[in-house]
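queue> pop job 88
queue> type: inverse folding (structure -> sequence)
queue> payload:
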């Protein structure tokens, strides 16, 4: 078995970033024989590790490599593994048996090697959370943090069950987005290929025929012939411009400041900006509710939930909100302007009633429903819009050809 993600990382010292129960982020160095031991030491000090790296790393090749697979396949495999372990633990099976069954089920999935590495680490005395935290290729700090909270509260199976639900809902939302855009994207590709075939092959031959016949061509036909000539002889210029545009975009987004600015501008785009904010709100509130229900303190839960936010502008705003909560501000007030109004109202009610975890999860469910409705609306608008646009293009081509034929016949 090829080795990539080391199950153990030998070093005398490890640098760490961790959150205290009060939510403060601290950095330091801890001495331990392995990364796994360093994680246990930090947990013994009532710290929630966010990042632990060897100060002078010397990797010991151990177990785990993820086979080549798409991101969606990896997410589904992780959700299935989590659901299997949760179900078996809830049924009363011992940890060793639950992990063994989950590993067997993951034999033909991207979770094969990580599942084996986790089982071996647990057999060696590590906790499930520490074992998962070592597999950074498949598990984020959110996953291991939820499991760690479940282990601390004695409700590991319930925490895993809720985590599996979170992963499944997240994948379902992604699939909904992909499904809503798949048909319009296919329609755009097919119609674009059809238009290119007309401009590259049909129009040049047609224009050659018209040139042989002579006569004055209608304006629409002259425009069509010019477009066909531009596509036939200038395609390489268009290709260079597209390539240059991609390079310029990547270079301009290479710095954190430009990426932050672009992510902030994305939120201002009509309709799609609201959908992105809604998706971030749904993911953040579900992660927050998940960890609070598992027994994690509010401030560490806020920090871990923020790590799952892909939009840099919203992530920065959430970090600022966490600082406000540390100073004693109410959570809903601190998050104003970052999350959607509906989610803020539910979080405010949760704070007042002492049911913040439950109401955060309810906010996630409601927000996901709103996102799905918005996606259906986008799909409903895109499909007829694309039909109209490409129908108009094909109609213009047909009209230009017919007008040219009528003009030639009239001249003859």
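queue> result:
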């Amino acid at each position: 078995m090829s080795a990539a993600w080391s199950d153990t990382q030998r070093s005398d010292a490890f640098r760490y970033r961790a959150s205290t129960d009060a939510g403060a982020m601290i950095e330091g160095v801890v001495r331990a024989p392995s990364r796994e031991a360093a994680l246990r030491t930090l947990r013994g000090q009532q710290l929630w590790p966010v990042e632990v790296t060897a100060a002078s790393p010397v990797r010991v090749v151990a177990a785990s490599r993820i086979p080549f697979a798409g991101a969606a396949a990896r997410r589904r495999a992780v959700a299935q593994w989590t659901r299997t372990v949760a179900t078996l633990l809830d049924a009363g099976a011992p940890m060793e048996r639950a992990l063994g069954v989950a590993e067997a089920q993951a034999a033909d999935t991207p979770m094969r090697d990580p599942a084996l590495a986790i089982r071996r680490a647990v057999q060696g005395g590590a906790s499930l959370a520490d074992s998962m935290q070592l597999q950074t290729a498949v598990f984020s700090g959110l996953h291991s943090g939820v499991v760690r909270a479940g282990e601390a509260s004695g409700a590991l199976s319930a925490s895993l069950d809720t985590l599996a639900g979170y992963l499944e809902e997240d994948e379902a939302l992604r699939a909904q987005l992909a499904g809503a855009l798949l048909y319009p994207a296919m329609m755009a590709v097919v119609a674009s290929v059809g238009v290119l075939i007309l401009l590259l092959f049909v129009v040049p031959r047609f224009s050659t025929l018209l040139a042989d016949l002579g006569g004055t061509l209608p304006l629409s036909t002259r425009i069509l012939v010019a477009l066909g000539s531009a596509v036939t002889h200038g395609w390489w210029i268009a290709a260079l411009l597209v390539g240059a545009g991609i390079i310029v975009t990547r270079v301009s987004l290479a710095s954190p400041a430009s990426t932050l600015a672009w992510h902030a501008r994305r939120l201002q785009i009509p309709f799609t900006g609201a959908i992105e904010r809604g998706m971030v709100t749904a993911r953040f509130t579900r992660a927050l509710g998940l960890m609070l229900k598992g027994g994690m303190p509010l401030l560490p839960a806020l920090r871990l939930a923020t790590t799952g936010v892909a939009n840099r502008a919203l992530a920065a705003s959430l970090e600022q909100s966490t600082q406000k909560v540390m100073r004693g501000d109410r959570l809903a007030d601190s998050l104003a302007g970052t999350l959607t109004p509906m989610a803020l109202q539910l979080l405010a009610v949760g704070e007042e009633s002492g049911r913040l975890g439950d109401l955060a999860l309810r906010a996630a469910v409601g927000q996901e429903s709103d996102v799905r409705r918005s996606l259906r609306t986008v799909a409903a608008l895109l499909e007829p819009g694309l039909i109209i646009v490409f129908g108009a293009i094909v109609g213009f081509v047909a009209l230009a050809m017919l007008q040219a034929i009528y003009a030639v016949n009239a001249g003859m």
